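Thread: "does anyone have the structure for this chain?"

Original post by V.I.:
We have the sequence but no experimental structure in hand. Need at least a predicted one for the grant figures.
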Amino acid sequence: MQPLRFPDTRRALALLAGVVAFATAFAGVAAAQTPAPSATQTRPAAGGNRVPAALRVNAMWIWELSRSDGGDIVAIGTRAKAAGFGAVYVKSADAGKVWSQFTPEAVAALKAQGLRVCAWQFVYGRRPVAEARAGALAASYGADCLIIDAETSYEGRYWAAGRYMSVLRSKVGPRFPLALTSFPYVDYHPKLPFSVFLGPHGAQVNMPQVYWKDIGHELADSMSWTMRVNRVYDRPILPIGQTYQSPTSPEIGTFRTLAAGYGAASISWWEWAATPARLWTALAQPLVQPVDDAILDPGYPLLVKGNKGDLVRRLQRLLRRTGRRVFINGRFDTLTLNAVTSLQQRRGLPVTGKVDATTWQVLLRRPVTPAPSPPPQDAPTGGVAADVTSR
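Reply from O.Q.:
Generated one for you, tokens below.
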């Protein structure tokens, strides 16, 4: 999540680290299975039909309550409803430390304004049990859901992610709405344990931070890339847009239209205090529906032998579900290749050993919609989502 103040040197290091990680760990990964979005598929890429009620309404993120309309709950409620928001996401904890702004009284007051209230917690993975307890406390305070914000600090911490989710679920129960928010480009952050946070008994919803201006990509490209690499986790995708860094009003409208086209059940925006007055007006404008209600198809990530990272871990888990014998190690090794070719042969697919759109659809138990397979494409140029180590 992008903070309101971010040192230039730290931003540069974050961008460089992301590019280096992508270039080294994901060299050879085809970024797209299709060259551009199309309206050929029957299931929305965002999979919005399985979203818990608490996350099915548009929302605005709040980092510091006191800086959001001066902490005036009535003013917050009035502004939120005028902009068409049905919820606010308020920071409740940083690591294992509960923030004093998130109290049962504050939650009740916001709900009295007709808003759903979700807590969000920034996690690091150094003390996963303490973090899980702090996250669970928000549920006991009346939060409608909890959003887990895991970023660079969690890279490589697979055990910690599993421990955090296990303890958290034991405290909030199997049905309490949980969501993950993190970087939009999974392949730029191959060591981040998306497959654990979004795995069995994990978060029901995936909320990537599609901050196109901060990333430095065209909005449509950024959204397509995000949908492509996140859809394989088989969780509803609710993209987060940005109102900081002064996006234009047309960009706000385009983001909303694209999200609807991909089938997102709702969207949210970062962040309340950083939103200029003119954008509150833009947020309140009627949604421009996609042309012909087209369901955009961003394609699927193309994986080949030699690739590494969490997308490969996700592949290996799906292969295991089909009965194939593979190690879940994040490396597209010979054992993984043999499992892929075995699956393709058994299902009557072209035996290429490459995990293309058709292979993903079979693994995800979705209707197969054949699509052309262009040559592998490079990642888009530019920076990556800003790294935030403390908010």
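V.I.: this helps a lot. Strands lie at 59-62, 87-94, 97-98, 116-123, 145-150, 178-182, 205-208, 240-242, 268-270.
O.Q.: and Residues 228 and 300 are 5 Å apart (CA to CA).
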